[in-house]
Amino acid sequence: MEQSVASLRKSAEPYAAWWQQKTSYVMDKTEEYYKTMEPGINTSVQTGRVTYEFLMNPPGKFYPSVGAVGFSAILGLYLAKGGRVKRLLFPTALMTVSASMFYPQHVAALVKEAKEQISSLASQKRVLLEDVWKGKSPGKEGVAIQRAESECWEGRGREVQ
């Protein structure tokens, strides 16, 4: 009996070693994947909790304003029968108009920020065009202007959000 159990163990040993190797590999990959995904999952859960708390205790007149903005989007889809561009622009424009009626302070801040960005960009382009018109090569200055321009757009976008 002992010899048959020993021979069974010897014949099953390679399969058991293979199984242990594969399960340890799977466990390592699963742990690595979990460590990669955990921050995103935690962020999603936290966002869900904050949203739930906000929707359970919304500020006054929140739901009517959301309803009006949503209705304007549906109206925009209805009016945009035809081309794809219309289906994109009409709902977006109507939602923007209705949201600006409910949140004028935010719209004023966004318009002010956009105005500053556009004027800054226009002045940088004017300097660049003057240099090109005068026959100067943009060279290092042009690269510096382009770098400042990209930093301006990237930095401003973070402040508004």
UniProtKB/TrEMBL annotation:
Query: Which superkingdom, per the lineage?
Result: Eukaryota
Q: What is this protein called?
A: MICOS complex subunit
Q: Where does this chain mainly localize?
A: mitochondrion
Provide GO CC annotations from the record: MICOS complex
- Could you provide one GO biological process annotation from this protein's UniProt record? cristae formation
Enumerate the InterPro entries for this protein: MIC26/MIC27, MIC26/MIC27_animal
Signal peptide range: none
The UniProt family comment states: Belongs to the apolipoprotein O/MICOS complex subunit Mic27 family.
> From which organism does this entry originate?
Clarias magur
How is the subunit organization of this protein annotated in UniProt?
Component of the mitochondrial contact site and cristae organizing system (MICOS) complex.
Which residue stretches, if any, does this entry annotate as coiled coil?
none
Compartments where located: Mitochondrion inner membrane; Mitochondrion membrane
Q: What does the record give as the function of this protein?
A: Component of the MICOS complex, a large protein complex of the mitochondrial inner membrane that plays crucial roles in the maintenance of crista junctions, inner membrane architecture, and formation of contact sites to the outer membrane.
Pfam families, per the entry: ApoO (PF09769)
Query: Which terms are listed as keywords in the entry?
Result: Membrane, Mitochondrion, Mitochondrion inner membrane, Transmembrane, Transmembrane helix
